[in-house]
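pasting for the record
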Amino acid sequence: MNIHKLSKRERERFDFDIIAHWIPAGERVLDLGCGDGNLLRYLSETKRVEGCGVEINPQSVLQCVRNGVNVLQIDIEGGLSGFEDLSFDHAIISQALQAMHATERILAEMLRVAGEAVVSFPNFAYRTNRSAVAKGHMPVSPDLPYEWYDTPNVRFFTLVDFEALCDQLGIEIREKLAFDETGRRVTDDPNLNGSLAFYLLGRRPE
C-alpha cells in the first residue's frame, strides 16, 4: 500500500487496520487521546468492541459524541485513577505518545487498567529523518508532518529508545511491526528503515 499518495483519511484507515488486527472481536477497549473517536468507531463497526475514549480537547470530545463514541474528558498526563485495574482488555494510544510529557506514567497506567496495550508512534531515527537532521533541519514527513515551530510533539524518540524504556519499566514487548513511508512492512533494521512503529505490550511475567 502506497500511503505516500493517500489522503489523510486513507492514511488514518491504514493505521486503524494495523491496530485492529491485535484486537479480538467483542473486547473492552480504552483509547487514550482518542481525538474525534474515529478509531473506536472503526473498531466498534469492524470488531464490535465495547469502547471508551479519553480526550482533553473539548472540540474533539464533541466530535466523539457526534460519532456515537463513549468519551470522558480527562487529562491522561495525570493518570487514569478513575479506572479500576484490568477494567479493559486493551488500552490504545495511537500516534499520541510523542505528544505526552508523562510517558512512563502513561505506559504503566495502560497496563494497570488493561491486559495489553497497543502503542503506535513515528520513528525519529527513520533514515529520511536522519538525513534531514544531517542537513541541519528538523524532519518533516508524512508521519512527522509538523514544522518545528508548530509541532504538538514534545518527545522525539526511536524504536531503540522505546524498547529500552519498556525494558526499564518491566514491560514485555509481545509483538512489533514497522512500516516505511510507502506502507511497506520493514523487518531489516526497523530502527533505520521504519517510519511508523506499532507495539503490542503486556506485563512482564514475574
